[in-house]
Amino acid sequence: MLTGRQRGVTLIELLIGVTIISCLLLVGMPSFTGWIRDLQVRGAAESIQSGLLLARSEAIRRNRPVQLTLADAGGLVEWRIGCVPADAACPALIAERKRGEGGLNTRMAASAVAAAAAVANVAVVATDAGAGAALAAGAGLPVSIAFNGLGRLAGPAPDRIEVSHATPGARRLVVRIDAGLARVCRPPQDCA
What we know:
Number of helices: 3
Pfam family, one: N_methyl
Domain General secretion pathway GspH: 44-178
Protein name: Type II secretion system protein H
Family: Belongs to the GSP H family.
Largest sheet: 4 strands, antiparallel
Membrane topology: Single-pass membrane protein
């Protein structure tokens, strides 16, 4: 037998609480998915940047040419680092990032090769027409970027590597190679 009043939540109060939580989730979900897309693009761009920096540091450490190859012609983020030419002291595969490691939602593309400026080790600046225009996923791929034993570009290199999301209209980032160093920027304002 119960001697006092029972405390709890009525069915009406429970339904009101569930309705409020559902409304908050519906309002917040688009910004949450946009945030996740931005994180995926940022992670892929930083992966390419770190691959370029690793290839450069391996070339300096080994005092011989080392290249990073952006391998997937379809635009999935995948790269390999290896010596050029490979031998027993310097393998053809030093490090790699497989296409499934960071998810399959990000895409990359490389712009046209800027041969003269890259060989001269000059900072390459995108043209006005190309700075804001998005590249199609897989454009310019596969491509290899080689560094010599001094850490300088050892041949032609793309003037930009663009990373975007598979979802249309999502933010994109650009990896620029200036004087052998890689940096990530947001086009078009930060990439000048």
